[in-house]
Amino acid sequence: MAAYTATSAVGVGLGPLREALAARRSGLRRNDFGDGERLDTFIGRVAGVEESALPASLAGWDCRNNRLAWMALQADGFLDRVAAARKRHGERGVAVVVGTSTSSIGASEEAYTRLDGDGGFPADLARPIVHTPHSLGDFVQQALGLRGPAVTVATACSSSAKVFAQAARLIRSGVVEAAVVGGVDTLCGSVLFGFNALELVSSEPCRPFDVARRGLSLGEAAGFALLEREGSGPRLLGWGESSDAHHMSSPHPEGLGARLAMEGALSRAGLTPADIDYINLHGTATPKNDEIEADAIAGLFPASTWASSTKGWTGHTLGAAGIIESVIALLALEHGEVPGTLNSAELDPLCGPQLRLDNGQRRCRHVMNNSFGFGGNNASLLFGYA
C-alpha cells in the first residue's frame, strides 16, 4: 500500500481520523441534510462539501459526490503519490477501480426537481456524465491524469471493498503495474428516505452490537489507496468474496456468505483465524446484520482476536464503507491503535469474546475488514506486512 487517505464526518485526512478514534469523538450529528422534510435521525455528514469547488478543468464533472472525492484526493499528499506512480508506470500503467452505491444520484434528483419548460434537465445539470453510475470512476481517472483501465464497482455496501480484489487481479495478471482504489458515497434523498422505507434507520446515534440497537446511522465519506506490484508498507495479503443470493436486503440467516468471504480471505493469504489480530466488522447496528455477523465471528475466530464496528464514528457510509474501514484497519496495523465500538454500552449476548467496546493498544500483524452489502454481496480483506 503505497499510500492511503480517508475523509469522513470526523474530518479530512488521516490526522483527524486518528484523533477522533483515539478521543472516541463521533462525527454523527442530528440530521440537517436537504431542504423541506427531514428524517428524525443522526447522520455522518462531511463539513465543507457545499463550499468546495472543482478545478475549472474538471467543472464538467461537478456534483456533490465528485466534490467530496476531490476533497479526499487532495489530503495526505495522495495526489503527489499518484503522480509519482504515474511517472514510474506511465499513464496507462495505473488503473482506477472505485466503488459507489449511488454515484451522483443526488445531482439527478436535483435535476428532476428543476426541469425546464420542455421537461428537460436545467442547463447547469445537462451534463450526461454526472447522471451515470460511472460518474465517479470517470472523474477520478480524469482528475489523476490516468489512461489505464477505469472500473466503477456498484455492489451496494461492499463496493469499495471489492475494488481491492479487482485491482489485485489486474496487477497480478500483468494488465497494470499499479491501481488507485477507493470509494465515495454522499448523502441524498434516495439514500435517507430509501433506507427509512426499509425501517432500518435509527432515530438515535447507531449502537452496533448493542442489545438495544435500533438501526443504522447513515453517513458519507471518500477514501483512496494506491496499490503497487512492488513497494514498501502494508500489503493486501488476501481477499474473499461471496454472494448469498438469499434476499434483497437481508443476509443469509446462518451467515453462510459472511463466513465464506472470511474463509476465502484467510485461505488466499495462507493464514488461520488465530493469525488475525483485529477485525473491523461491518456492524451496521441493524438487528439481523449484527446478529448474524457476531455469530459468524464467534464461530470462526478464537477469543484472542479483537473485533469492533467503527460506524459509531462515521455512520454507515454505504459504498464508501469498504475503503473507510479498510483505512481504519490499516491504521491499527501501522500504529497499534485498535478502536472499540462507539455508543454501545451492553453487548448482545450473541456476541462472542472477540467483540470489544473499549479502544486498546496491541501490536497487530494481520488485520481484516468485512463489508457486506444488499443482495448478499460480501467481501473480506486481509492486510499485513509481506
Automatic annotation (TrEMBL):
Transmembrane segments: none annotated. Pfam families: ketoacyl-synt (PF00109), Ketoacyl-synt_C (PF02801). InterPro entries: Beta-ketoacyl_synthase, Ketoacyl_synth_AS, Ketoacyl_synth_C, Ketoacyl_synth_N, PKS_Beta-ketoAc_synthase_dom, Thiolase-like. Residues 1-385 form the Ketosynthase family 3 (KS3) domain. Pathway: Lipid metabolism; fatty acid biosynthesis. It comes from the Bacteria. SUPFAM superfamilies: Thiolase-like. Keywords: Transferase. Belongs to the thiolase-like superfamily. Beta-ketoacyl-ACP synthases family. PANTHER family: BETA-KETOACYL SYNTHASE (PTHR11712:SF320), POLYKETIDE SYNTHASE-RELATED (PTHR11712). This is Beta-ketoacyl-[acyl-carrier-protein] synthase family protein. It comes from Pseudomarimonas salicorniae. The lineage of its organism: Bacteria, Pseudomonadati, Pseudomonadota, Gammaproteobacteria, Lysobacterales.
